[in-house]
Design a protein that fits this description.
- The protein is mostly beta strands.
- It folds into two domains: 182 residues, Jelly Rolls; 169 residues, Protein of unknown function DUF2961 (Jelly Rolls, Sandwich).
- The strands form five sheets. Strands 3, 5, 6, 11, 13, 15, 20, 21, 22, 23 and 27 form an eleven-stranded mixed sheet that branches. Strands 1, 2, 4, 7, 8, 9, 10 and 12 form an eight-stranded antiparallel sheet that branches.
- The chain is globular and about 75 Å long.
- The two termini are 39 Å apart.
- Keywords: Hydrolase.
- GO terms for molecular function: hydrolase activity.
- This is Glycoside hydrolase family 172 protein.
- It comes from Natronomicrosphaera hydrolytica.
Length: 372
């Protein structure tokens, strides 16, 4: 990991002294000011701290009402977000995380909370990776470094039917940011069901210079049998041609990077299967994982669902002008023929690029986000 003037560190440079100033935002210190944490007064007669008073965990969380957007952080730069911890209540698909850089009106991160933290099915799964950790009972942790020059604004919108309770902590450093530093982005998509013989688009419409650093997918299977034969393709720097629609099978365009199968891209092999038990196996490693498998229960939970991540931390995919990413939904039918699947697929693409951020596709409506 390349240090951003002391804003990002790893074990190789942890010993180096820096001029960066460490700050942290929580409901107990909502603007991250130096020496002003834990100053809330327990004015609510039902407050847990009503007998202990100021300084005794008066405001550890916020309540976000249906239809309300809460500003988690509004930070003047230059600096970098170094880690984010959150634990929410309510459906994770109905909590929308957005991050805006340097005063842009367009968010550079727009994603349901669970999917952003590689936990898309609204059920806890242990995730143990370098970029994201999800720990018991539902502790969401993000370690992507997010530099900014002028301003960082982080919001949470509750599009659900009930009020949500959110605990959070945003840890950041204030310091100069080098000229060649790019901005963190994350974009969510979902299609349910995928139209027959159409490829699934993970990312499209990105313009500028940057590098792609990760993919998360929540994959719900609508057929029996194996579902992960499809290739993952990266179209870089004009591969698609002018005006080419990446969703239309690529037309006569061909990608620079073309993988060998879905489970291969996510660093597994041969169906993620234990050859002895003939069952799928979960795994979670620093750079890739299949941390969650939801199996049919013989009643109303009838479909298999999978959760997968792949972080391109040691092998970022560089682009100079543009990038698009697709995956084929492909299984098997009779006579050893491929079957184009019509599955429930959601994804998050993670990348760094220069500003400005191009407008994202509109998020699906609430009913289309809902996990049923």
């Amino acid at each position: 990991m390349t240090p951003f003037n002391g804003l990002a560190v790893d074990m190789s440079n942890l010993h180096r002294v820096s001029d960066a100033r460490t700050r942290s935002i929580t409901p107990e210190n909502p603007d991250g000011s130096k020496g002003r944490g834990g100053m809330a007064e327990p004015t609510d007669p039902d407050s847990c701290a009503r007998e202990l008073g100021r300084g005794w965990k008066v405001r550890p969380n916020v309540r976000i009402q249906p239809g309300e957007t809460h500003t988690i952080a509004d930070i003047e730069g230059p600096g970098a977000v170094q880690s984010i911890w959150m634990t929410p209540t309510g459906p994770w698909r109905f909590s929308i995380l957005r991050i805006y850089w340097d005063g842009q009106q367009q968010p550079s991160v727009e994603c349901p909370l669970g999917d952003f933290f590689a936990c898309g099915w609204n059920r806890f799964a242990q995730v143990t990776s370098l970029a994201v950790c999800v720990n018991p009972g539902r502790g969401f942790n993000c370690y992507w470094t997010m530099p900014f020059r002028k301003r960082c604004r982080i919001t949470m919108e509750n599009i659900g039917f009930e009020a949500m309770t959110l605990f959070y902590q945003v840890n950041y450093a204030l310091n100069d940011v080098p000229d060649d530093t790019a901005y963190f982005h994350a974009q969510f998509r979902r299609v349910n069901p995928l139209p027959y013989k159409q490829v699934y688009t993970v990312l499209d419409g990105v313009k500028g210079k940057g590098h792609y650093v990760g993919t998360y997918m929540a994959w719900g299977v609508n057929n029996s049998g194996w579902w992960g034969e499809g290739e993952v393709k990266f179209y870089l720097d004009g591969d698609l041609g002018e005006g080419q629609d990446v969703a239309e099978h690529g037309g006569d365009a061909y990608p620079t990077l073309c993988g060998t199968g879905t489970e291969d891209y996510f660093c597994g092999a041969y169906n993620f299967e234990d050859r002895q038990t003939r069952q799928y196996l979960t795994f979670s490693t620093p750079y890739a994982g299949l941390p969650q498998i939801l199996r049919p229960d013989g009643a109303y939970q009838s479909q298999q669902r999978f959760s997968m991540y792949r972080w391109h931390i040691p092998d970022p995919i560089r682009f100079e002008q543009d990038i698009a990413v697709t995956v084929q939904a492909l299984g098997w039918r009779s006579q050893q023929r491929y079957l184009a699947l019509q599955d429930d697929i959601a994804s998050v693409a993670y990348w760094y690029q220069q500003l400005p951020t191009a407008p994202f596709p509109e998020l699906p409506a609430r009913d289309m986000l809902e996990i049923i």
